[in-house]
Design brief:
This protein has about 350 residues and is an alpha/beta fold. The chain is built from 13 helices and 12 strands. It has 2 domains: about 240 residues, Aspartate Aminotransferase, domain 2, CATH 3.40.640; about 100 residues, Aspartate Aminotransferase, domain 1 (Alpha-Beta Complex). Strand 9 and strand 10 form a beta hairpin.
Length: about 350
């Protein structure tokens, strides 16, 4: 939405000197936090503005939570497969990372229970909306069973919801079922609005906010006020809503076209009718995704092999495709050539 961003930048340029030059408050811009509280309420998540902290992005939100909650050696559960940067971030915090196989309706609940008993983890990090990389959606049945296990094990769940606005029909939210007791909800506008406008948020239990505020002051002092002002303007004037509605249509079209092209090559989606921007696909028998990715890289095409997302390295036949970046015909030519080698 470059035109809307330019209008918002012109509006920001007319702000007073405080908005342009001073540090933002640690919790972040109050009007934006109030608006985010209303948006979360639309998903059934009850959070007051003083339970919301703005961050630079979703990754910073998770980093702050890891600093706040983890000690070196603590176990953390992640989905297998999951967003590859979760692995790197958790290792940076010297956590013991434990993978739980992911199914089309959520984590394998029996294996999840086994991991709780064996490792006694401090955290579980997941996407309950559109899952990265699989595009799967958490089912209500699995959500309830997951929360029951978390309560029994005194486990904290970090619900990374940065793809929420790509949904056509809202999925169950763990934070909505839980009421921000054991679940911490995070979001970001980097994927839906602009990677240059760094603005995310944490919604957490009320009694955590003082500690998180102290930690944010120690690590970044204040927030990025200009980015917050831009996001607030775009949310208030309707530009963001219109942009996201158009984006969903474009992504749906790209999903259908990309899936069709891949299907013709024998590359099959893992789930039916995925939504969002990712296709998690199984390659034909005998083809290793890492080999395909290496051959494609030699042709200056970057692909995402499955084991980059799998802690157990059991996704060697899988590959994640970002349909928003699959409009170039050359990608499919190089992919077909790489698979033939």
């Amino acid at each position: 939405p470059q035109a809307a961003l330019r209008r918002a930048l012109r509006t920001a340029a007319r702000a007073d000197d405080v908005a342009l030059a001073d540090y933002g408050t640690p919790l972040g811009l109050p009007p934006l936090r109030r608006l985010l509280a209303r948006r979360m309420a639309d998903h059934g998540i009850e959070a007051s503005p003083d339970q919301i902290m703005l961050t630079d992005c979703g990754t910073q939100a998770i980093d702050l939570l890891c600093r706040f909650l983890l000690e070196p050696g603590d176990a953390v559960l992640v989905d297998d497969p999951c967003y590859f940067n979760f692995h790197a971030l958790l290792r940076a915090h010297q956590a013991k990372v434990v993978g739980v196989p992911y199914t089309p309706s959520g984590p394998d609940i029996e294996l999840f229970a086994q991991a709780l008993a064996e490792h006694r983890p401090r955290l579980y990090i997941t996407n309950s909306g559109i899952h990265n990389p699989t595009g799967a959606i958490l089912s209500p049945v699995i959500a309830h069973r997951l929360l029951k296990l978390a309560d029994q094990a005194e486990l904290t769940i970090v619900e990374d919801d940065i793809f929420a606005d790509f949904e056509h029909t809202p999925a169950p939210r763990l934070a909505a079922f839980d009421g921000l007791q054991r679940v911490v909800h995070i979001g970001s506008f980097s994927k839906t609005l602009s990677a240059s406008v760094r603005c995310g948020f944490i919604a957490a239990p009320r009694d955590w906010m003082e500690g998180l505020t102290d930690l944010k002051i120690a690590t970044t002092f204040g927030g990025g006020r200009l980015s917050s002002e831009l996001v607030l303007t775009l949310l208030k004037d309707g530009s963001y809503r219109k942009h996201v509605e158009q984006l969903r249509v474009r992504l749906s079209r790209a999903m259908t076209e990309t899936a069709g092209r891949l299907n013709a090559m024998g590359i099959m989606p893992w789930i039916d009718q995925p939504t969002g921007m990712f296709l998690w696909c199984r390659l034909p028998d005998g083809i290793d995704a890492a080999d395909v990715a290496r051959h494609a890289l030699a042709e200056n095409v970057v692909l995402a092999p499955g084991n980059a997302f799998s802690l157990s390295h059991t996704a060697g036949r899988f590959m994640r495709f970002n349909v928003a970046q699959c409009g170039d015909e050359r990608i499919f030519r190089v992919l077909e050539k790489a698979m033939a080698k």
